[in-house]
BTB domain-containing protein (Trichoderma harzianum CBS 226.95), 319 residues
Amino acid sequence: MSSDDGKKLDFVKAIASDGDVILVVGEQKVELRVHSQCLISASKVFGAMLGPNWSEGQNLSKNSPKEIPLIEDDAKALYTICCVVHHRNDILPERISPRELLQIAIEADKYDLRTALLFAKAQWLQRKNITDMMELAYLMAAAFLFDDMDMFIEHSQALILQHQDSYIELLADSTLSQILPANTPHLLEERRNRMRAEIGEIMLRETKNSCSCGWGKSRSDSYRDLLYEYTPLRILGTPISKVVERIQSISYDGNRQYHASTSRYDKDYYHEPAKYIATLAEKLEKAKRRVSLCLDCVQGSGETESCRFEHEEFYYRFN
C-alpha cells in the first residue's frame, strides 16, 4: 500500500467508536478501532488471537482499547473487511479494484474470513466489463483464494477468449506468482489452443451444411470466407472472442425461407433462422464448457475427469 493510501485511511480510527481493540496495520501503522467480538465471531484466527489464552485477548476494554500490531497486513484490505464484519455499509468503499480485491482475498485467506465475506465477495467478484488481462488475472486469483468455482471459471474463460498474448507475464507479477499454481499459465494456453481448434472445426462443419436454396448457400459461402480469413496462423493473432463475434454475425435471412423439395416424396419446408441461431449458440457454449479452466484443473494435473465442474468431453460432436 502506498503512502497516499495510508493518508486516505488515516482518519479511519473508529469503525466502532466504542471498540475495545485498535488494529495497527501496515508499515504506515494505520489505526482501525474495532470490536473484538465482531472479529472473533467472523474469524477462528482472530478468535484464537483475541481469546483468553493470548495476551492480546486479555483485559480488553472500550475505555482503554488494546493496540494490536499487524504490520505485515494491508491496511486498506483490513479496513474493508472490518467494515463488512461490523455491518458498516455506510463507510464501505463504493469501488474496489481487482488488485484491491486480491489483497482482501489474501487477508481473508490468512484470517479464515471466507464465510464472513461470503455475500460481499459474490458482489466484488463480478467482472463488470473488465477486459484488462492483469485485472482479470487478479479477479481469477481472488476467486482461487475464496474457493469460488463459478467465478474462477468465469474469469479464466475471459482470459482464454479475450486475449491473444502470452500468459507467461502473469508469473512476472510477484503476488500472482505466489498465489496461483505454477501450471496456470500453461493450462490457460492449452485451453485457448483447444478453443481455437473447436472454433476452426465449427467453421469447417458449417461450410458443409448447405442446401439447394439460396439461404443455405449464402450461409455456407460466408463460413467459407471466414475460414479462409482465420487460417490456423491468422487465428493465433486474434482474440477468440472476436472470431466468435464474426461467427455469430454471419448474415442470414431473418424471415422464414421457403425451401422447395427436389423430390416428389419429400415435403416442402421453411428454414427457421431462429432455430439455426439457437443451435449455433449451443455449439459455442459446449465448446466453452469443454475448454473451461476450473479450480480442480489448476490444483491437479490439468485432467478434467476428476473435476467437480462437469466439463464436456473434448471431441468434435456437433450433430
